[in-house]
Design brief:
Helix content: 25-40%
Distance between the termini: 6 Å
Order of helices and strands: EHEHHEEHEHEHEHHEEEEHHEHEEH
Oligomer: single chain
CATH class of the largest domain: Alpha Beta
Largest sheet: 6 strands, parallel
Radius of gyration: 20 Å
Number of domains: 2
């Protein structure tokens, strides 16, 4: 990225919870400049300050207060090189495809295209190589595209676990079994979220569709991108098929505002498996491509390993590095599988907007988006 060069970006769903997080992060970004804000027709035409019910812990950035909100239509964003989508899934599908068809690069937090066989599902510290499928996505579009594409980031609970899992697979080879129990913050349900009568003094042992997302997304993210059998030149995601990985997830909503805590147990294909100390060292040493390439939003420490027996905790650890990394603790031997540990991720940062922004930074540095 040329020093001093700035790239115009837009934010869709800018008045929502994820959209506000995009606005907060992008307002201080060294490369990306917020050029357009998009929201529903009822917000269009108002200034951002008038349209938004600001719910961030930091003040609304001064530079966006007077910006006029646009409808989420491609013609309003034509001079943006990148568009970040914080849209709800109910609205995201048609809008994101329209923006892609208009030759705009869309980095989406929505779930709509995560299962598309030509759309990369990227956790920036894990599988940036999956950006290589974008030329195929563009070529198969009718008509073929030159610049437009969609990249999705993962479900917030999936993101938290695949980062340490990727570190373990890099150090010790493939995993065979994964058991995960989540304790997910109420902000993951959006605003206004879970009713106080449902969540106070309570745990809700069901989050619709969440377990299936973790069990499926983990395989796409940790798997490879391979040549499709019988179709020369065609790529497909192998879903970790070369070393089959079985995943079982149990998801719970807990009375915490931000920060997903997940209890993980894994079994390695390698025998004998690594020791807990070897696992701690591998997690602490993990350096992803995003850091090596110089993504400005990548944290100094991708994985912070805690030695204390009672860490990580959401209230104490979710804000570390502005929520851009993950925290792991209680690494120990598992008497059923091999190793078990606890991971904490900030679901509204690395679990949402921060991932999309680093994905876009990677796309710029790899030349997928012209700088």
């Amino acid at each position: 990225m040329e020093e001093g060069r700035q790239i115009n970006v837009g934010v869709l769903g800018a008045t929502g919870t994820v959209g506000q997080r995009f606005v907060t992060l992008l307002s201080a970004h060294p490369w990306f400049v917020i050029h357009k804000l998009g929201a529903s027709p009822r917000s269009a035409g108002k200034t951002y300050k008038e349209a938004v019910n600001w719910k961030q812990a930091t003040a609304m950035p001064a530079g966006v207060k007077g910006m006029v909100v646009q409808e989420c239509k491609p013609e309003h964003f034509a001079d943006c090189a990148i568009v970040f989508s914080g849209l709800d899934a109910d609205a995201a599908g048609d809008i994101e495809t329209a923006f892609r068809a208009a030759e705009l690069a869309v980095f989406s937090n929505a779930k709509n295209y995560r299962r598309d066989p030509n759309v990369p599902l990227i956790v920036p510290f894990v599988n940036p190589g999956h950006l290589a499928i974008i030329p195929q996505q563009q070529a198969l579009h009718s008509p073929p595209l030159q610049k437009g594409f969609i990249v999705t980031n993962a479900n917030c609970s999936t993101t938290g676990i695949v980062i340490p899992l990727a570190a373990l697979e890099r150090a010790f080879g493939p995993l065979e079994l994964l058991l995960v129990t989540t304790m997910q913050a109420i902000s993951g349900a959006g605003y206004p979220g879970v009713s106080s009568l449902d969540i106070l003094d309570n745990i809700v042992p069901h989050i619709g569709g969440e377990e299936e997302k973790i069990e499926w997304e983990t395989l796409k993210i940790l798997g490879g991108l391979t040549e499709t059998e019988g179709e020369p030149g065609r790529k497909s995601f192998d879903m970790h098929a070369r070393h089959p990985l079985r995943v079982s997830a149990a998801c719970n909503r807990v009375p915490v505002i931000d920060g997903h805590t997940e209890c993980v147990s894994v079994r390695f294909a390698r025998r004998p498996p690594p020791s807990p100390q070897q696992v701690r060292e591998a997690l602490a040493a993990f350096t992803p491509d995003a850091k090596a390439l110089g993504c400005p939003s990548a944290p100094r420490y991708t994985i912070t390993v805690h030695e204390e027996p009672d860490r990580p905790q959401p209230r104490l650890d979710r804000g570390y590095q502005d929520g851009a990394g993950v925290s792991v603790g209680r690494v120990r031997q598992c008497p059923v599988l091999d190793i078990k540990f606890v991971v904490l991720s900030n679901n509204v940062s690395i679990g949402a907007a921060t991932s999309s922004i680093i994905n876009a930074e990677l796309a710029v540095l790899k030349g997928v988006v012209p700088a």
